[in-house]
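Question:
Write out your own:
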Amino acid sequence: MSKRGQVTIFIILAIIIVVLGVLLYMFYPQIKSTLGFGEENPEVFIENCLKDKILETAKIISLQGGELNPEHYFLYKDNKINYLCYTNKDYELCSVQEPLLKQTIESEIKQEISKDVEVCFNELEESFKSQGYQVNLKKKDFAIELLPKRIIGIFNYSLSLNRADETTTYDEFRIILNNNLYELVSISDSIIGYETALGDVEISTYMDYYRDLKVEKYKQSDGTTIYLLTDTNTEDKFQFASRSLVYPPGY
């Protein structure tokens, strides 16, 4: 009877240990936070704060030909689509309107998110102060870069966190977001090159070479061409307008 009692006790203890293990696994994040080890990494904090704004801004710019507020545009399906190549005369080839398209887009994104950047870093500072840290945040400049298959935000902000005689420093913050805008802009530049030289382009050539690319073009009544580029894997899009080598009606 004594041995059977001991076995029973061991079984009960084993069950208790398993239950405690399951509970610890389920509630570990809350326990971790309560113990003071759950602070979010500052770089993760900034990425979570800004990534949606950056991607949404890039999407709007992409559907409007590289600008948030185009001044010289064609209205197509209620979208103001920027002219990247244009002539107002018949029989003439167009002239490039955005010779530095990539840099223009980077500047547009930077300008649009600048207020959000200020807000996010202020929230970061307040968040760590509320957790008992001494915070030294030095705000400098930042840049947005379009690179192959990604958009990068580089923030030259320095941050020092001190608590309980332990100091952690960050000399720079980076956000890396998956996006194919760089590739779509590069191909758009190539199409514009054909528009300036020939007044038109054979879009099937691009789709034969880039298997994951869909290129569409839609001729408008005034001679404008709307180009729509789509990455079939990611559904990232870029569209723009061009008016080149237009023949008048009846030609």
